[in-house]
# Entry
Amino acid sequence: MAEMNRERLEVRRVKAKRALSYQKRQILLCAGTGCIAGGALKLYDYFKEECARRGLDIYVGLTQEGETEGYTNADHIQAIFQHSLPGLFHLCLANSANIPADILSRYAQEGAEQLRFDKEACARLGVELVSRPVSTTRRGFVRHDSELLAAALLELHAQKSVRIAGLGRYRME
# Structure
């Protein structure tokens, strides 16, 4: 095997970057018990239908999160990168909707806490933190609003993607 040098390493980097650019865009949704109870399957169906309706070549899939109590958003991202590919994505959508104090208090009594966001740690991982109001309160519970979340993700996709004329695929700006 040939010895690795800067030139060979650069060739490998360019080939890897090109291969990544051809990968299909993905939307992965949590399929844990709480997520399912909060409407993740409805959101999954909505994204699949909306992407198909708009002719977007985006994979929509479900994942199940492990036990991550005390994690910040950056900790979740780091874990995803460790178990997949560093730099797999470059944007994190966070909820900015206000949660009523009485609901936060009740959740705290149950041992649940609001996810903390660490913008600087995200930046060190190469991930931009973007916030939009994507939750709602129903019957005393905070839940993702599937329509608000879908609209926010589709808006971000439109803002961050550039269509390459004639090639039928997208690339990130």
The longest strand covers residues 25-30. The chain has one domain: 24-172.
